[in-house]
Amino acid sequence: MSLTLFSQILPLFSKHKVVHFNRTDTRLANNGIQLDLQKLRCRVNFQGLKFTPEIETLGYKLVRILQDKGPFVALHLRYEMDMLAFSGCTHGCTVEEAEELKRLRYAYPWWREKEIMSEERRQQGLCPLTPEEATLVLQALGFDKETQIYIASGEIFGSERRLASLRAAFPHIVKKETILDPAELPQFQNHSSQMAALDFMVSVASNTFIPTYYGNMAKVVEGHRRYLGFKRSILPDRKKLVELLDLHQNGTLPWNDFALAVKQVHEKRMGQPFRRRIIADKPKEEDYFYANPEECLCEGTKCEDLVGRRP
User: Fold this and answer.
1) What is the pLDDT, as a whole number, of residue 111?
2) Residues 105, 97 contacting (CB under 8 angstroms)
3) In the chain, is it the N or the C terminus that has fewer CB atoms within a 10 Å radius of its CB?
4) In angstroms, rounded to a whole number, what is the distance separating the alpha carbons of residues 100 and 104?
5) Which pairs from 116-121 meet CB under 8 Å and 24+ separation?
6) Which CATH number fits the domain that encloses residue 161?
7) Which residues contact 305 (CB under 8 A, 6 or more apart)?
8) So what's the pLDDT on residue 8?
9) What is the mean pLDDT for each group of 10 consecutive residues in the chain (311 residues)?
10) How many of the other CB atoms lie within 10 Å of CB of 178?
11) In 3D, which of 141, 164, 163 has the Cα closest to residue 258?
């Protein structure tokens, strides 16, 4: 490793000043690294890295418009075609929609899983919450009709039809497309990562952040909000929620009992301090450093308060 560093990588740094390491995020070690290096990672990731001036200008404008109207929730609604196709999650879809998602999955030969049992995966908590499920969870958590909700996502699969129940329960729903002037977005619209960057900025700045799926963006937003002082991030326990949602929707669990159970499940899933989970020899299954950079969170916080595992 050191030989490669000095013979190959250092000359590249000297020549280009910046080197882009592609697809290395999931291969970076979480644990066992010197404290000063871990803190350097935090300073780079949460303070040093910046978006382009064009993205930052528009992102800050979005945040300013939302904040002028009061507190807001950023709902990272990961109910998008690519997510559903490749996860095999079709709960709430029509037969035709499920077939469309399956065809998309088969169109990519490098996607290893082809035949996926959607309901089995949902029961395991491996599917994003549907817009209808997210509506019930938000209501159970105590958010009311006056809550301002920013939808941080790309195009929702099923479009406005699938957002109907969410809009009925929360009329003050907005997206970047509805807040900004139509002339402001075209330069970003053909670049999904740049559109996601705008959502990222809003999500970090929100009063409450709620992801419906625990993917890469959700993890990094969670970590950034922890770094900024443990800002409120409600991290849904999807496996438990599916169980409660099904009981409520089949008439077994009355609303008041459902709402109480949802609140109890998430009491310790609000972005509070907790120790990063370490799994020996299984780094892909342990907690991601950038979601919980505990080594960087001690200043202003008693380190002994960082106790327990992820709930």
Assistant:
1) 79
2) no
3) N
4) 6
5) 116/87, 116/88, 117/88, 118/88, 118/89, 118/90, 118/91, 119/91, 121/87, 121/88, 121/89
6) 3.40.50
7) 273
8) 75
9) 61 76 68 90 91 95 97 96 93 93 90 88 96 97 97 90 94 94 88 93 98 93 94 96 97 97 95 86 85 81 53 52
10) 9
11) 141
Instruction: Give DSSP secondary structure letters for 167-234.
Output: HHH-S-EE-HHHHS-GGGSHHHHT-HHHHHHHHHHHHHHSSEEEESS--HHHHHHHHHHHHTT---B-
The Cα–Cα gap between 286 and 277 comes to 6
pLDDT of residue 26: 60
Q: Which residue has the tokens 């380190």?
A: 303
Domain count, the chain: 1
Helix, strand and coil content of the chain, in percent to the nearest 5, comes to 50, 5, 40
In a domain, 200, yes or no: yes
Please report whether residue 136 resides in a domain: yes
The residue to which tokens 């709902």 are assigned: 75
What residue numbers bound the domain in which 238 lies?
33-40+69-79+128-296
Task: Give the pTM.
Answer: 0.89
Residue partners of 247: CB distance under 8 A and separation at least 6: 253, 258
